[in-house]
Write a structure and sequence with these properties.
720 residues, alpha+beta, Rossmann fold, 8-stranded mixed beta sheet, 13 helices, 38 strands
């Protein structure tokens, strides 16, 4: 009955008939009678006061928030938006299908990951032709040994519209596997356990947890993080013993500070279990011997604001990545018994102003470090004896180099992955003794892809305050550099996350149609070091938006782009970026794509019941403080929608999104429909079965991308 009701309402809204939404036209014509196309649904206006310590704000679309996801009026409105999106994009369906087939046609369907060795087994992931989900498997001793299938996610996903295995961990003795699954998309995971020898799945289900899993040395005990049922914040570490009732799992640790995320894990040498506490500006690790039956955890280094660190255990020492007296981080070594005595810390990789240390991997004879320098990532090899330190570089103008899976300690080989906007992910083993690099796999790209037909560049745009902004660019060599090419510019700029150049099977479909693709490495990320991040957060957040705009102006001025065919894209916090840019400089863009956008920042950050809110104060500011309240209000995309012409816009969300709640973009779209003065299309696509990451499955997500690209290409005047 409910679904029939929703379909009827969606049809009514699409035809412009008055239904549950107030304010719809009583003189609206049917789609078939309208020369201008379908009529968008108009959300009802309902007065609502959003309180704050600094005065209240009216939010007429607040009613679109339904935490239960069951309100018939809200669901009907969302279904109406989907129906409207279907109608607006109907003429692009053939192009969408063509793009989808191109993307999928580039992917080798029976593909497999490069195996890695751990505790006598070779582990890998593979896909079978025509199937959406991975198979996780292993072989004992040799790659020539018989295959053992640990998890066939295709079978596990049967009967589910959405399904994800977010994490899995094998017990130290190799006999059991624990995994975290989600069949809704809200990131409320369930942990299951399976006997790998018999194939038996144990009865116990540990529900409403984070995906992290850590096995103790007894091969019967796991640590996990339970979520708060309201905020969905993982704040309680519990211990589960195989064969017992999860309802009785004892509490090991509870995080009292709601600005911290909590996680669990093990050190690479498997000697210690770890409880991680991480806020935006500080870290704490608590450790216990993995063979300690009591699991007596103690802080490795006491918690201290503005001190972030991560440590690995090696022999009788701790190796620590730390920002203590090192804003771009350094790596130190310290005897195990004196780990908290900073006078005993000795530099292994000293701090540098021109390099940011992202990550590291420990080995018995050397240290491998992933770092950013001049905006690009490299791998540094540092032997423990201090001799012949060197950097593995690329000869491409713009690229990414990241540490791969390095599960073994006693080896001379480090695995890393190289890619660029035009180079598929390429896995290498580098022998630190011989300096020989072995190509293990370059991800195959089918469909006639020829890497030599494309080029990538790394350029610098000057921001309005004089700061040089790095930009990664890709296009076909046949695309003219004369100001006639359409441009898609991507940006993020938040949380210190570096948006390094990556290879995309989908982007090739744009490049092949004459597009230039650019990633703007704007402030708020960490590509250029810690200061790059600090200058794009809190009271410096506006730099993120102006950087993106200034990059656009630079690319147009340098003839990379046709000024009438410039498009912007961002998701999540990058969706906030797109929303702010739409308000500030709408005239620069023909169209914008905002995926799961964080656009109602003030209201969300005032409400600690919303998942993740309390963790975000050090990123955005706490609006209980008037200074932050007024600054956030000055750029909040939702609060700054006004009567002006906007670009064509494609907005997406997932009904079950726990990171950016669906009602943020829903309210934003409703307000845009009311306020904007243009006739440009505004499409709102809601995935009713998914969360923040969109659809599950290997290929289904490309349906969403194909729809976005069909929208862009149509606006660019490209119909095939």
């Amino acid at each position: 009955m409910a679904r029939m009701y929703l379909r009827l309402f969606a049809t009514a809204a699409l035809l412009g008939l008055c239904g549950l939404t107030a304010g719809c036209s009583r003189n609206a014509q049917s789609v078939a009678d309208r020369a201008v196309g379908p009529t968008p649904p108009i959300a009802a206006s309902r007065p609502y006061e959003v309180p704050s310590p600094h005065g209240s704000r009216q939010d007429e679309f607040y009613w679109l928030r339904d935490d239960t996801r069951s309100d018939k009026d809200v669901l009907a409105y969302l279904e109406a938006e989907n129906a409207y999106a279907d109608a607006v994009l109907a003429h692009t369906k053939p192009l969408q299908e063509k793009i989808y087939n191109e993307i999928v046609g580039r992917i080798q369907q029976d593909d497999s990951s490069v195996p890695y060795r751990k505790n006598g087994y070779w582990y890998y992931r593979r896909y079978e032709t025509g199937k959406e989900y991975p198979i996780y498997a292993r072989k004992r001793g040799s790659l020539d040994a018989p295959e053992e299938i640990m998890l066939d996610v295709n079978r596990m996903a049967e009967g589910h519209g959405y399904f994800q295995v977010a994490n899995w961990e094998v017990s130290p003795n190799g006999k059991l596997i624990a995994w975290a699954e989600d069949n809704v998309g809200r990131r409320q995971y369930t942990i299951r356990i399976k006997d790998l020898e018999s194939g038996k799945v144990f009865d116990e289900k540990i529900t409403n947890v984070d995906p992290g899993i850590a096995w103790a040395a007894d091969n019967r005990t796991i640590l996990y993080v339970a979520k708060d049922p309201t905020t969905l914040l993982g704040d309680k570490v519990r211990k589960h013993v195989l064969g017992t009732d999860p309802a009785n799992d004892p509490l090991v640790y509870e995080e009292q500070d709601k600005s911290y995320y909590t996680g669990v894990g093990t050190t690479k040498d498997e000697q210690f279990l770890v409880i991680f506490s991480q806020s935006t500006v500080a870290t704490q690790m608590q450790v216990a011997r993995s063979n300690d039956a009591k699991l007596a955890f103690k802080p490795l280094i006491p918690r201290e604001r503005d001190h972030e660190y991560y440590a690995e255990h090696l022999g009788d020492r701790w190796i620590i990545r730390t920002n203590w007296q090192a804003k771009n981080f350094r790596i130190v070594s310290v005897p195990e018994a004196e780990v908290s005595n900073r006078d005993r810390w000795r530099d292994v990789i000293p701090h540098r102003d021109d390099a940011f240390i992202d990550d590291f991997a420990v080995f018995k004879s050397f240290l491998a470090v992933q770092e950013h320098s001049n905006g690009l990532s490299n791998i540094r090899i540092a032997p423990w004896d201090g001799k012949r330190e060197r950097i593995i570089r690329s000869d491409e103008a713009s690229y990414t180099a990241t540490l791969g899976t390095n599960a073994e300690l006693d080896t001379n080989v480090v695995r890393y992955v190289h890619m660029s906007l035009v180079t598929p992910p390429t896995t290498y083993d580098y022998d630190t003794q011989t300096d020989q690099r072995t190509l293990l796999k370059r991800e195959p790209v089918l469909g006639g892809f020829d890497q030599t037909q494309y080029t990538t560049e790394y350029v610098w745009a000057t921001a309005r305050d004089g700061t040089k902004i790095p930009v990664s660019i890709a296009y076909r060599k046949t695309t003219p550099r004369d100001g006639t090419a359409p441009l898609l510019q991507y940006g993020y700029g938040a949380y210190g996350l570096s948006m390094d150049p990556y290879f995309s099977h989908a982007v090739i479909s744009l490049l092949d149609r004459g597009f230039v693709y650019a990633i703007a490495h704007i402030r708020g990320g960490q590509e250029m070091g810690r200061d790059w991040y600090e200058n794009g957060k809190l009271l410096n957040k506006r730099n993120t938006f102006s950087d993106f705009i200034d990059v656009t102006k630079h690319l147009v001025a340098e003839k990379y782009a046709d000024p009438k065919r410039v498009f912007g894209q961002g998701g999540s916090a990058g969706g906030l970026l797109i929303g702010a840019v739409a308000n500030i400089a709408p005239e620069l863009y023909r169209g914008l794509i905002a995926e799961v956008p964080f656009v109602d920042i003030v209201t969300t950050m005032l409400d600690e019941s919303i998942p993740l809110t309390s963790n975000e104060y050090d990123e955005w500011g706490n609006p209980q403080d008037k200074q932050f309240y007024e600054y956030m209000l000055s750029y909040s995309p939702y609060d700054n929608v006004r009567a002006q012409a906007y670009p064509a816009m494609y907005v997406s969300t997932g009904l079950w999104d726990s990171q950016v709640q669906y009602f943020e973009p829903a309210k934003w779209v409703a307000k845009l429909r009311k306020m904007k003065t243009d006739d440009n299309p505004l499409v709102f696509r809601i995935n009713m079965e998914a969360g923040h990451g969109g659809k599950s499955g290997r290929f289904q997500r490309y349906r969403e991308i194909a729809e976005e690209y069909g929208f862009l290409l149509d606006l660019a005047g490209i119909r095939e």
